[in-house]
Structure formats: structure tokens, C-alpha cells
Specification:
CATH superfamily: Isochorismatase-like
Helix content: 25-40%
Distance between the termini: 19 Å
CATH topology: Rossmann fold
Strand order of the largest sheet: 3-2-1-4-5-6
Order of helices and strands: HEHEEHEHEHEH
Radius of gyration: 15 Å
Number of strands: 6
Number of helices: 6
Number of domains: 1
Largest sheet: 6 strands, parallel
Strand content: 15-25%
Shape: globular
Oligomer: single chain
Structural class: alpha/beta
């Protein structure tokens, strides 16, 4: 796994910031029974990060193959991106606010599936992904965000949002790091 600060925000850090935020460094990981929550953006949406949707699909396909719950959070009236759309049996949670938890039935789906953690992916990073990460921690879920499976319309917003949640609310990792952890947990019977 990469060093704690070795993610997309690395180029924004000054030596003073590294010193101040060193206290937030911790071991990162996943819960024993995570669900993957795909945050679908409002339409139209154009992320500056290329390939984030392909990475979402790879993460979701891995979760499906391991029998993990996949839940989709969708703003009202949004057209789902075909490649990352829900499959039969995967819940759609309509969200009326930025958080997938607030005024939505996400928590009920997590409780029914006995999930004790959340892996977030989707867009926008600085809006719905960040808001959902904050609420997820507030609900007591161990939360992870796949850095490269998120996107935003501005690179700075993406980086700052992930920096903020990594230091306060969630474990930011690459999709490959999350997929490796899921496969290891599955092979050892932990998940």
C-alpha cells in the first residue's frame, strides 16, 4: 500500500502541511463486511479525471464476483451511465441531497445486508462522495474511498476533497489496493 500522503493531493502539500497533518496518519483498511456504494453524478457531468468510470466498473465487478453487496445512489432524474448501471437485484437509493444517507434508504440497505463498512466510488468527489463519506463515518461505518474510481469537474476540488476525507473520515486507497484487500479477505474467509 502507498504511503499515507502518496495520493492525488501530493503535489498540493507543503512541508508545513505535512508536519501539521502527520498526526492524522493511520493504518488503512476495509471492514470485514463492506458494501460498495456507487455514487452516480447528476447529468450532465464531465470529470477531468480520465478512466474513473472504467475503474468503478472494475471495482464493482470484483465486489460482485466476491458476493459483496453493491448499492447505487442516484440523484432524482439522473440517467445512469450504462457501464456502471445497477444490475438486477442491486438496490437503487434515490438521494435528494448530496449525502447518499440523508433522506434516503442507504442505511436500511446496509443494515439488511449486514454490511459493517462502505467502499465509495463515483462522482462528484467534492460533492456527493465527500458528503457520503462524512455521513458514513457518522453512522459508524468503516469507510474507504477508491481514489481512482472517483471523479470531479475540477482537479483541485477532487484533490482537496480526497485530502480532507483521508485525514478525517475515510481511508483513501487506490482501487487496486482495495481489490487486493477484498481478494485477500475473501481467500482467508475474513470477508
Amino acid at each position: 500500500m502507498r504511503e499515507f500522503e502518496d495520493y492525488c493531493w501530493r503535489d498540493l502539500l507543503t512541508p508545513d502541511m505535512e508536519k501539521i497533518y502527520a498526526a492524522y496518519h493511520r493504518e488503512r483498511g476495509l471492514s470485514s463486511r463492506p458494501a460498495v456504494v456507487v455514487i452516480h453524478p447528476h447529468q450532465p457531468f464531465g470529470a477531468v479525471q480520465s478512466g474513473w468510470q472504467d475503474t468503478v466498473l472494475r471495482l464493482v465487478d470484483t465486489a460482485r464476483s466476491l458476493g459483496l453487496k453493491v448499492i447505487h445512489s442516484v440523484p432524482p432524474g439522473a440517467a445512469l451511465e450504462t457501464r456502471i448501471a445497477a444490475r438486477a437485484g442491486e438496490p437503487l437509493c434515490l438521494r435528494t441531497t448530496e449525502s447518499a444517507f440523508f433522506f434516503a434508504d442507504l442505511e436500511a440497505h446496509l443494515t439488511r445486508s449486514r454490511s459493517n463498512g462502505v467502499i465509495l466510488c463515483g462522482a462528484p468527489t467534492s460533492g456527493a462522495v465527500r458528503a457520503t463519506a462524512v455521513e458514513s463515518k457518522s453512522f459508524g461505518y468503516k469507510t474507504a474511498i477508491a481514489e481512482d474510481a472517483t471523479g470531479d469537474e475540477a482537479s483541485l476540488l477532487h484533490k482537496v476533497a480526497l485530502f480532507d476525507v483521508a485525514h478525517k473520515y475515510a481511508d483513501v486507497m487506490t482501487a487496486d489496493e482495495i481489490i487486493d484487500a477484498l481478494r485477500i479477505a475473501h481467500s482467508t474467509g475474513v470477508a
